[in-house]
Amino acid sequence: MENASKALIMAGGVLIGILILSLAVYLFIDFGGKASVIHDRITSNQLTQFNAQFNIYDGRKDVTIYQIITVANLAYQNNIDEEDSTYKVRVFFEVDGKGEISRYQDNANLITSYSGVDTSTGEINDLFKCHSVKYHENGRVSEVHFSRN
Q1: Which of 5, 51, 60, 71 is the most buried (most CB within 10 A)?
Q2: 90 within 8 A of 143, measured Cβ to Cβ
């Protein structure tokens, strides 16, 4: 009788051990899946926030030269920070034969040439349009194109 009760206690211990181990594996898999979903959401939010900095100009016809220079500086800063050179952002200013612009260009000349400020009223007369925003295959903005209205 003594051996039978010890065998039952041992069997019960093994069953409890298997239950605890099964619970640990289930929790590990469940938390791992949730962490993956949270990581995907964070990545998606970061992509949306990044693109929003450029998308606010898409289709607008009231963009000033100051805003274009701001976008070029933003793209330049991103390109410095971006470790993978395949996902760089390029800004094109398609006015008077100009092409891609970057932070290194003489922005003072662009401002003097294209600010179009009416000295009597202080209104900006020289406005541009953002006619296209293009994307990399990963969904990040790759090109922003500005031209004269």
Answers
A1: 71
A2: yes
Q: Domain locations in the chain?
A: 2-148
For 42, 50, 58, 72, 78, the CA distances from 39, given in Å and listed in that order, are: 5, 17, 28, 30, 22
Q: Does pTM top 0.90 for this prediction?
A: no
Burial class from Cβ neighbours inside 10 Å (0-12, 13-18, 19+) for residue 71 reads buried
Residue 146, helix vs strand vs coil = strand
Long-range contacts of 131-139 (CB under 8 A, 24+ apart): 131/59, 132/58, 133/54, 133/55, 133/57, 133/58, 135/51, 136/86, 136/87, 138/47, 138/87, 139/47, 139/51
